[in-house]
Write a structure and sequence with these properties.
- With about 675 residues, the protein is an alpha+beta fold.
- It is built from 14 helices and 24 strands.
- It has helices spanning about 1-10, 10-20, 55, 80-90, 95-105, 110-145, 150-155, 165-180, 205-210, 225-235, 260-270, 350-360, 380-390, 665-669, and strands spanning about 215-220, 235-240, 250-260, 275, 280-285, 295-300, 315-325, 330-335, 360-365, 370-375, 395-420, 445-450, 460-475, 480-485, 490-500, 500-510, 515-520, 525-540, 545-570, 575-590, 590-595, 600-620, 635-655, 660.
- Strands 11, 12, 13, 14, 22, 23 and 24 form a seven-stranded antiparallel beta sheet that branches.
- A hairpin with a 5-residue loop joins strand 19 (about 545-570) and strand 20.
- Helix 4 packs antiparallel against helix 5 and helix 5 (about 95-105) runs antiparallel to helix 6 (about 110-145).
């Protein structure tokens, strides 16, 4: 006990300094809680009448010697009311300012100045409320934080205290353990009403004649009689070669309001006749004689053009000829083509593929002039008309905006005394270090070393008091426009290069060796920053968009030393060194598909990473003594939470670039 009293008497300065460091600072009080704003009465009388346009016209301004004292008129009718609102805002009386602004707005809702003033006051009042709420929350959180200890907390602290428990984590584990192995919806069937669409196809220019309804009833008469009876009853002009054998064949028909086109297709298929539809009449010719078929040439100039692959011409062309013993020569040509937009566009436009599949006439396509020249019969050209009407339309576009939000809040505290023996105080203290990775120019903090403790020259106590904290918010918002069902990519960042392969060259000298590392091969590329790969598929009604997205965040890229090559001389002295450095980075990526409506934002996902550490260094036995044990231990607290959130907004674009949102009120009704 006597030695303990002597220690307290000789080292009273250490304990006093420790108590001063642990004192908790008092933060300024937050603004008072906002009060409810009473709404002004809508029947409040007007204090001024609206001036006529002539009276409201401002007069020519006269020069003033003191422009800083010149009075400004905000509104010729409500100038005094507006100035009153501004005066209240300057005094931070936002509740009263909002009440006056609301009364002015209800008095004259059509006045632009009153509406703008009310919107601004409402927004600023809400911002001040949110700021006051945030300040109060942070003030209360700071009192219970391990990074803001008081003297009482330090003296009553348990050395074996761990990290603070997380109730939300315990609740999440309990929910996971209580979750059933088989989901509740397994084996259940639900019925929902599907969405129906009207599929309307644009009709060709010859379709009006063929859409006429005919009614005829004849039995065992020549086909010629049937056709001309239909012509007389429906008012259609037919021209036919009566020497055709098919017209003499007997046929019995009973038609009641049947489409003319359907009847003619039946006759053409079964009697080998060709019906050529003109503007005012129909020719009947022999379907087996191609010379009698009437052909014409049409020119189609596309309004929307073609979707061609984004590529340059072949940079390299290689031909290989192989001749067999039977003198058959095979030539294989290989072309190297570079695409500058790798969107998987087909080599042949889809409209050309449709023409090849469904048009039986002759055609020529000029891509430079967006022109298609076609030759064939009217029936063949009708198919071309329908192909062009369906394919020559605008391709829908989507604007994709992705927001990558990274929030980092780091805190570090080191407080206490380190007891050591054999410390060389002449080597100096520690170097300035940023333990939060957020600062740019950090200090050393408080560190004081006391020597010759208890009369022992090699016993020292180092008092350390250091606290660091910071907050970082990073927003990356790439935007790009893409067409329907074609992928696109965008990236923003820095590119670094490094070699993956080295060759060691060593030179043996008289008393030492000299080694060098020579890079081999092509350097590898390492990207840092933000990238987004996306494809959008727009529904038929345009009300929903299916997105396939792959965002990627690659940051904290740096080259670290992987190995060091060292040369020494015959005495063992280091002559030269060479470091092999490899990249190290933090990469966060996800791939998913989501469905959104035009103009809506979807949360794709996020990453929460939190590093919490607590470390205690103490003198055995003495560091566990209540009250005075705080003088014999040093505690280090580290808390590094990091959050990454990814939001994506998809909006349809019109042909002129405006945002496009389809009305879905019919579905709600």
């Amino acid at each position: 006990m006597a030695s303990l009293k002597a220690f307290l008497r000789n080292n009273l300065a250490i304990l006093a300094l420790l108590g001063l460091v642990g004192c908790q600072s008092t933060q300024p009080s937050s603004p008072p809680a906002a009060k409810a704003v009473p709404k002004a009465s809508k029947d409040s009388p007007k204090t001024a009448q609206r001036a006529t346009p002539a009276a409201a016209k401002p007069k020519a301004a006269t020069p003033s010697k003191t422009p800083e004292t010149e009075k400004v008129t905000y509104n010729p009718v409500y100038d005094e009311e507006i100035k009153t609102v501004f005066d209240l805002a300057k005094k931070n009386k936002w509740e009263d300012a909002e009440a006056h602004a609301l009364a002015l707005y209800e008095r004259d809702p059509k006045d632009n100045s009153a509406q703008r003033l009310y919107d601004w006051i409402t927004k600023q009042r809400q911002l001040h409320r949110n700021q006051a709420l945030e300040d109060k929350i942070r003030e209360i959180d700071a009192k219970s934080s391990v990074f803001n200890p008081s003297v009482i907390d330090l003296l009553k602290e348990n050395k074996d205290r761990g990290l603070p428990p997380r109730k939300d984590l315990r609740d999440a584990i309990e929910k996971i353990e209580a979750a059933p192995y088989v989901p509740e919806n397994f084996g259940k069937t639900i019925q929902q009403k599907g969405t129906l669409f009207d599929l309307n196809s644009n009709q060709g220019q010859m379709a009006k004649i063929l859409e006429k309804d005919i009614t005829v009833q004849l039995d065992n008469v020549p086909l010629e009689t049937i056709i001309f009876s239909v012509a007389q009853s429906a008012g259609i002009n037919f021209v036919a070669d009566k020497t055709l054998p098919a017209l003499k064949q007997p046929l019995g028909v009973k038609l009641d309001k049947v489409k003319l086109g359907e009847f003619l297709r039946y006759v053409s298929r079964n009697f080998e006749l060709q019906f050529q539809v003109g503007s005012d009449l129909i020719w009947i010719v022999d379907g087996k004689d191609p010379k009698k078929l009437l052909e014409e040439t049409r020119f189609y100039r596309l309004r929307k053009g073609f979707v061609m692959p984004a590529e340059f011409g072949a940079s390299e062309v290689t031909q290989v000829k192989v001749t067999t013993p039977q003198n058959v020569t095979t030539v294989t040509e290989t072309r190297k083509i570079e695409k500058f937009v790798n969107d998987n566009a087909p080599a042949v436009p889809s409209i050309e593929e449709a023409i090849k599949a469904f048009f039986t006439g002759k055609y020529l396509i000029d891509y430079e002039r967006n022109l298609i020249v076609a030759r064939g019969t009217r029936d063949q050209l009708e198919a071309m008309d329908k192909i062009i009407q369906e394919f020559d339309k605008s391709i829908q576009q989507v604007l994709i905006e992705a927001r990558f939000i990274t929030v980092t809040q780091a805190a570090f505290m080191q407080l206490g005394a380190s007891w050591e023996t054999g410390r060389d105080v002449r080597t100096g203290g520690r170097a300035a270090s940023d333990f939060t990775a957020l600062g740019t120019d950090v200090g050393l903090g408080l560190q004081e070393t006391f020597t010759n403790i208890l009369g022992r020259a090699n016993l020292s106590a180092t008092l350390t008091a250091l606290e660091q904290g910071g907050e970082s918010q990073t927003l990356s918002a790439p935007r790009l426009t893409l067409i329907n069902n074609r992928p696109a990519t965008i990236s923003d960042g820095k590119i670094q290069y490094y070699y993956e392969e080295y060759q060691v060259k060593q030179q043996i000298l008289e008393r030492r060796s000299s080694s060098t590392l020579v890079p081999m091969g092509k350097p590898a590329k390492l990207n840092s920053g933000v990238s987004l790969e996306v494809i959008a598929s727009i529904s038929g009604d345009g009300k929903s968009i299916l997105l396939g997205l792959k965002p990627e965040v690659n940051q904290d890229v740096k080259l670290v030393t992987f190995a060091t090559l060292t040369d020494v001389d015959d005495t063992g002295k280091v002559v030269s060194t060479f470091d092999i450095r490899l990249p190290e980075s933090r990469k966060q990526t996800l791939s998913t598909r989501v469905i959104v409506k035009s103009g809506q934002t979807v949360v794709m996902g996020g990453v929460m990473e939190r590093e919490q550490r607590t470390f205690v260094e103490s003198v055995p036995v003495l560091g566990s003594i209540p009250i005075i044990g705080a003088a014999f231990r040093k505690r280090t607290e580290v808390d590094k939470p990091r959050y990454l959130l990814i939001f994506v907004t998809a909006t349809l674009l019109s042909e002129t670039g405006e945002f496009l949102v389809y009305d879905d009120s019919d579905e709600k009704n």
